[in-house]
Amino acid sequence: MKEFSGSLGGLPWRGYLVERVEDLPKFLEWVRRQRGTTCFDTETLGLGIYHQARKMGRSFVRLSQFGNATEAWAIPVELGRPFYHAARTALIELPALTGHNMISFDGLASDKHLGVSLEVICSKSTDTMITSKLLDPRPPEAGGLGPKLKPQAAFYIDPSAPDTQDGLTKHFNSLGFTKETGWAGIDIFDPLYVEYALLDVILGARLLPVHLAELERLGVRKELLDYEHEISRICATMSRAGMLVDKEYTEGLYDTLDADYQRNFEIVQSYGVLKLGSPDQIAKALLESGEELTERTDAGNLKVDKSVLLHLCDRNDKWERIGGRTPNPLAEAVYHAKRASKWRTAYVDTFLEEMDEDGYVHCNINTLQARTGRMSVTRAAVQTLPSRDMMIRRCLLADPGEAVISVDFSAIEMRVLAALADVRRMKEAFANDEDIHWFTARLVAGEDATEYHRKKYKTVGLGKVYGGGVTTLARQSGAPEADVQHAINTYNRLYPEISRSSKKWTRQAYQNGMVHISATGRRLPLDRKRTYAVVNYACQSAARDVLGQSLIDMDAAGLLPYLRLPIHDEVLAFAPTGEVEEVEREIRKCMTMDLFGVPITAEGEIGKRSWGSLYGADF
DNA sequence: CTTCTCACG
DNA sequence: ACGTACGTGAGAAGT
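YS: structure for the whole thing
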């Protein structure tokens, strides 16, 4: 056994590294003495819970740490069964746990590699990542502390708390490792590695009570904290289930996209462009080919983005000819090469890289990522797969004998806006199950309302939710500014409650230290220069909480085993073909509710085995 | 590390 | 009085 000690925030701490099997009884005695909440953390080979251990042929969990405010233990799980069993016993026997991002990372890692299920972990855990996001959801660049342990510890515990993440990276580098290779490569008994591992649980154990006290001081309801832990468990369960990669199709797609890229990049090169990702070089070559470029980026450079390229190709975004000019072959090649390259690297490569031994990808769902509380999904970013073309979604499959189900909320943000701002005429429209944009168009143009009117007022309605101005809406819709201005004025007359609520929410935020309190009691800090964003924050965050509540209802209805992904206003599920209709109906039922007198409704779709089947694929 | 670009809701 | 589209993840290039 090796001992460590130090002092943080004026309070000493001691740490113990178990080196031999004979040290384990002392650890287990300590475990049995713990009455309060114990912090749990793991040091692993990396982030790839589901594929890394197999690829490297090693124990994924290297070190497992447990600690309270003053004492911490490090168990070298990778050394073998007795150590693994001690960590497992501790996880099972400890009465209450905390940890930083522990549910979606350490919880899933324990589920996969330590013989302790996610359910057991979740039944007694409080995650300080969740408490930190409820205190302030902003990343550091937006003025918040950010969720990392270091700034949290520095602010809430001790300004001189060491930056264990940054410090470890530097230590890795000094030993000849990189940030990535260090996790797997460092000696399990390296003193600094172990000391930082011990410090992490000491800090985590101290962070929880301070966070909880702060949440109480700020009046954040306990119910919101419980609600977020339920959502975290539900989403981690979806990650664990994963989605099957159609390996044969995906490898074929890799080759297709690669060939597409090669072919088009050769054409691009023949115009003297060496780097496809260099807007400078592309702009120069286009100018030399006789084109005129007028649009500029925020930084003042010539813009050569997708819309500019499509225009030069004489195509719309569905790749249909516009018929206004002769297509520029360089623009066509750049467009195709960039698309093939992005789709291959961002999606296809990631699927093949992240696949586990059985061919499943287990994406990481960050349940409170955005400052509005919205979720994000990484490794792979499956919330952003191309939807106009089915080829990427075609890579992901339900299990044999199953089919995909997708259920969407109908116009959720407009409904949430009507509910939160108490917009009388909108509420009437939704009560009658009207299409809100047709409704608005008919209010203005009567029976003469056309698709053109609907589109115009849809743009304005969305602009309201986002807080957009005349210029942007005009650019976005292609309509003249005067037209758009008139439509906005009309909209404001029809639905005066929107501006009224916006002003009220802004005023209240000022009184509340520039924080908007959402309908569910979430704290949403505003930027002083963009207070108009309060309408968007209120709507986006309430829409997210409607989704969250529906997920909790789905779990209660026994539907969790079918769920695979939350996508902002949509839920993706897989079910045996004999049950799809019933599962779709039950999910839809959970997504149907009342929000302050506004009916929230949903529509479902049933496909075949691949996700792409919902986008036109025939399998 | 910042900028640009592009994929989504 | 004025004027503001919101929120993400990811890769490549250039500083």
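YS: worth flagging: The first strand of chain A starts at residue 2 and ends at 8.
IM: good catch. Also Residues 221 and 521 of chain A are 7 Å apart (CA to CA).
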